[in-house]
Amino acid sequence: MAEIAHDTVPVHRPTARRPSAVIEFFVRLFREKPLGAFGAIFCIIFLFAGIFADVIAPYGYNQIMPINRMKAPNAQFWFGTDNLGRDIFSRILYGARLSVIIGLSSAMLSTVIALFIGIVSGYLGGKLDMIVQRFVDAWLSFPPLVILIVIVAVVGPGMLTVIGILGIQGGIGASRIIRSSVLSVREQSYVHAAQSIGGTKIRVMLRHILPNVMAPVIVLFTLGVGNAILAESALSFLGFGVPPPAPTWGGMLTGSSRNYMYLAPWMALAPGICLTLVVFSINMFGDALRDLLDPRMRNR
């Protein structure tokens, strides 16, 4: 008796869902780059401290309490007080707000300038590329701090002036890195395919060049924040930054802090340590981003 063959119905087993790209990135960050993860956590704390300085700070940044002048760090004044009786912890929080605004704004401006110069110069090439790169070479030949001091001395100090100068300064220098990435991307087959079907230069640069150079752009933006904060502190230390009574970390390191360094060393130690930790954390986070986003570093 012939056996009747029955059709077998395939059984579909539910496949495990992969975690999102963001979660997977942070898992890799904490597992492979613990120092970069520490930098990311400290950057988030620094960002929230600057945004919510009004809520966190126990006193106003310019609230003078003569009876509490030059108090050592204690339970009431965590970082002590300065020669006028102002709470240093509150001033550091408000200084973090200025550092957040200046760092993010100047880094964003420098990223836009670097993208424009790097993509246009690298993709178009020819005489335009040669002229632009010679200008970049001439710009990079001058010491950055000298350029900053000269421009601020001519234009005048202020937050918008510092943001504009730092953005232009960092953008012109970073355009060289963007250009090198564009030179390698424009030789890819998908770029030639887009050109062969009649894609305009602007469309090719926006749709094919720009998305494929975002990895170094993210790293440059992250590192640019730390460099901008450090440069602004240097300008404020020399008296060319944001004018008082706005509390900047560089401004807190100069003036009365140097005069009373031996009597009240916490006046210089507190902003100096905060500045060091923030810049170090941002640089470590940016270095970890470079290692995780760059395919060549990942293969190593």
What's this entry about, in short?
By secondary structure, the protein is mainly alpha-helical. It has helices at residues 21-32, 34-51, 53-56, 88-124, 126-140, 144-155, 159-185, 189-196, 201-209, 214-238, 249-253, 256-259, 266-293, 295-299. The model has no long low-confidence stretch (mean pLDDT 81).
List descriptors.
14 helices, single chain, 0% strand, globular, mainly alpha, 300 residues, MetI-like fold, 70% helix
What does this structure look like?
This protein has helices at 21-32, 34-51, 53-56, 88-124, 126-140, 144-155, 159-185, 189-196, 201-209, 214-238, 249-253, 256-259, 266-293, 295-299. The longest helix has 37 residues, at 88-124. The chain is an all-alpha fold. It has one domain: MetI-like (MetI-like fold, Orthogonal Bundle). The protein is 70% helix and 0% strand.
